[in-house]
Amino acid sequence: MISRESADELLAGAEGAYLIRESQRQPGMHTLALRYRRTGASASRARPHATPSPSRFGLQTLNYRLFYDGKHFVGEKRFESVHDLVTDALITLHIETKAAEYIAKMTTNPIYEHLGYTSLLKDEAAHRLSRGRAEPRRVTFQRDERISSPLVRRSALKDATEKQCSYDKVHNFKVHTFRGPHWCEYCANFMWGLIAQGVRCSDCGLNVHKQCSKLVPSDCQPDLRRIKKVFSCDLTTLVKAHNTTRPMVVDMCIREIELRGMKSEGLYRVSGFSEHIEDVRLAFDRDGDKADISANAYADINIIAGALKLYLRDLPIPVITFDLYSKFIQAAKIPIADARLEAVHEGLLQLPPAHYETLRYLMAHLKRVTMFEKDNFMNAENLGIVFGPTLMQPPEQNALTTLNDMRQQKLVVQLMIEHEDVLF
């Protein structure tokens, strides 16, 4: 426990020397004091979390609050030893001091658009455009007529405007330690530091500086080799990795159910054996679209229906996304029928394209399920009870909130089934 002045005296004249001192004002708090030479204009630019001791020119003592949670750190990076922390700091300080102006300009002329990766994405986007993949349609509802009337439906369909859309996906960047020299794939500059020199997208493998990651466009093209499973995988990530419109699980399960299960009593309400549902999950995770879910493998259609519900329930971001949850709940509370339906439609337009397309396909299927109500006893309200909590989950995962919102969750799904032809 020594003063800052005493630390300066001990470190005087020795560039790269460091010591750790305990705070006199706050016992138990520690400061890393590091001696470093800052020259010219850079001498006045200390790092945001570092406090330099006064010095007219040259050597300064930089003081960092030092923390420990099993590893040592002063910022985001964690180190096994203080020695490694100081080594990394000296590398970073040297780069930032000697190349400050260059670093400030290095993102102004990125090479990213000229990379083969980006060119490939543009080719794929052009291919999607040629196939005519459409965006959600914007519909204006007439206030003075019943929502279910054919006139309103025809008017809505006539006024709807279809636009091209692409499944944009943000990169899933995570801090990464590179072994050996590495260069940023956005700006083509060296990635410096001892550890955690940059970030890597865990879905496509793109390597960039942390500061460059904020400038990279939302054009992640997931690599199938990096997608380890189908269930519990982000919806947009999965469809982009497999180059499909919707998740394979949704397509395959619905196809199987419509082939042999539409008249099954209590379809989606009756549960299949959980062990067999787990087998289906493992089959999709292992075999992807080659998974066998035929009657030969699973005679009970409730197993396939249960697997579909499990897939939707286990999505890390629900089909109706967390950030739109409250919008749909509030829409369901609107007392006027056509205003309520218009509010639900506005919410649908804000869904990510892959989520929208999955929901559209699912609601069309559930509408067909209700056509067999005399056999399966499942109407839109019953299906709303089943699928409400599956498709919508509050962001805070609060049991009381979920309980209070159950009626609105049910109503939202019920409305989407009953008015599927108008809403989508």
UniProtKB/TrEMBL annotation:
Q: What does the record list as GO biological process?
A: nervous system development; signal transduction
Q: Which InterPro entries match?
A: C1-like_sf, DAG/PE-bd, PKC_DAG/PE, Rho-type_GAP, Rho_GTPase_activation_prot, RhoGAP_chimaerin, RhoGAP_dom, SH2
Care to name a GO molecular-function term for this sequence? GTPase activator activity
- Which Pfam family, just one, is annotated for this protein? SH2
Coiled coil located at which positions? none
In this protein, which residues make up the domain named SH2?
Answer: 1-86
Matching entries from SUPFAM superfamilies are given as: Cysteine-rich domain, GTPase activation domain, GAP, SH2 domain
Top-rank taxon:
Eukaryota
Q: Which UniProt keywords apply?
A: GTPase activation, Metal-binding, Neurogenesis, Phosphoprotein, SH2 domain, Zinc, Zinc-finger
Q: Identify the PANTHER family for this entry.
A: BETA-CHIMAERIN (PTHR46075:SF4), CHIMERIN FAMILY MEMBER (PTHR46075)
Organism per entry: Betta splendens (Siamese fighting fish)
Q: Where is the Rho-GAP domain?
A: 233-424
Q: What is this protein called?
A: N-chimaerin
Give every Phorbol-ester/DAG-type domain span: 170-220
Q: Which CDD domains match?
A: C1_betaCHN, RhoGAP_chimaerin
